[in-house]
Specification:
- The chain has 104 residues and is mainly alpha-helical.
- The protein has a single domain, classed as Alpha Horseshoe (Leucine-rich Repeat Variant).
- 81% of the residues lie in helices and 0% in strands.
- Helix 1 packs parallel to helix 3 and helix 3 packs parallel to helix 5.
- The longest helix has 35 residues.
Length: 104
């Protein structure tokens, strides 16, 4: 009986990990599509509020590449509150937006 419970528990963990990986992949696809379409929207803004640091960082980078000035307040918030790689990425993204703005 213990073996059956152990196997069931192990399978449950495996499926949970696979589902989490799929969610992250789907989120990264959303970010990439927004970047490809140069589309800054509420979805991308919400992803910059994600509890997952990698998602916040990737969303911030995409936002900078998109170049939409409406993103600056959200990026400034990341810069103030994330004193790590995410803050550095937010600073870089703001520079990208300003660079794109200057080129126009």
């Amino acid at each position: 009986m213990k073996k059956i419970l152990t196997i069931c528990f192990a399978l449950l963990i495996c499926f949970s990990i696979e589902i989490c990986a799929q969610v992250s992949t789907n989120v990264l696809v959303q970010i990439s599509k927004a970047e490809d379409e140069l589309r800054y929207d509420k979805t991308l803004e919400n992803l910059m509020k994600s509890p997952d640091e990698k998602i916040r960082q990737r969303a911030a980078l995409a936002t900078g590449r998109i170049g939409d000035e409406r993103a600056i307040p959200m990026l400034a918030n990341l810069l103030e509150n994330d004193l790590n790689a995410i803050g550095a990425t937010a600073a870089f993204a703001i520079g990208e937006i300003e660079s794109i703005k200057g080129a126009d």
